[in-house]
Amino acid sequence: MRATLLYDRDCGFCRWCLGKVLAWDRRRSIRPVAIQSEEADRMLGAMPETERLASWHLVDREGTVRSAGAAFPGLLRLLPGGAPLAALTSRAPRATDRAYRWVAGNRSRWGKLVTDGAKRRADARVREAE
Fold first, then answer.
1. Are 46 and 17 in contact (CB under 8 A)?
2. Sign of dihedral through CA atoms 114, 97, 42, 53?
3. Does residue 81 come out as left (phi exceeding 0), alpha (psi in the -120 to 50 range) or beta?
4. Quick check: 106 and 98 in contact, CB under 8 A?
5. Is 130 a residue whose pLDDT tops 90?
6. In 6-35, which positions are buried (b, 16+ CB within 10 angstroms) versus exposed (e)?
7. In the 3-class helix/strand/coil scheme, how is the chain assigned residue by residue?
8. How far are the Cα atoms of 68, 98, 107, 110 from residue 102, in angstroms, in the given order?
9. For 22-33, how does the pLDDT look when each residue is reduced to its tens digit (9 = 90+)?
10. Mean per-residue pLDDT for 24-45?
11. Which of 25, 30, 41, 100 is deepest in the core (most CB within 10 A)?
12. pLDDT-based confidence at 43, cuts 50/70/90?
């Protein structure tokens, strides 16, 4: 069973970031699922929609949900060579979360830098990994 990374399918920057994670995930340890799906509804339970869309969410093999910056250590442990970054983000959880929230809070600006071609390539990676 793979871990699940819930992402905002309506956000081009989010899809592009997910595509980068999936490219790194050569072991296919991560399964992408759109936050807007029925499956995500089941995984996130009673979490309010605004909180759901405020960040990504990693659901590990045991069903534990970690969101925003708190998802990084678990996500990075799944990726080849990610252990040192997982350790770093584990040791600095507040800084990791602040950095994540700053990027996420400005995703519309970042999204303008992502080309349509890059979004198409990311979407193709997501489809392959689903």
1. no
2. negative
3. left
4. no
5. no
6. bbbbebbbbbbbbbebbebbeeebbbbbbb
7. CCEEEEECCCCHHHHHHHHHHHHHCCCCCEEEEECCCHHHHHHHCCCCHHHHHCCCEEECCCCCEEEHHHHHHHHHHHCCCCHHHHHHHHHCHHHHHHHHHHHHHCHHHHHCCCCHHHHHHHHHHHHHHC
8. 11, 6, 9, 11
9. 999 999 999 999
10. 94
11. 25
12. very high
Six-digit token pair at 107?
């995703």
Answer whether 35's CB lies under 8 Å from 9's CB: yes
- List, in sequence order, every residue forming a beta bridge with 31; answer none if it has no partner: 4
Phi and psi at 2, nearest 5°, equal -95, 160
The proportion of the chain whose per-residue pLDDT surpasses 90, expressed as a percent, equals 90
pLDDT in tens, 81-128: 999 999 999 999 999 999 999 999 999 999 899 999 999 999 999 999
Three-point CA angle 115, 117, 122, nearest 5°: 100
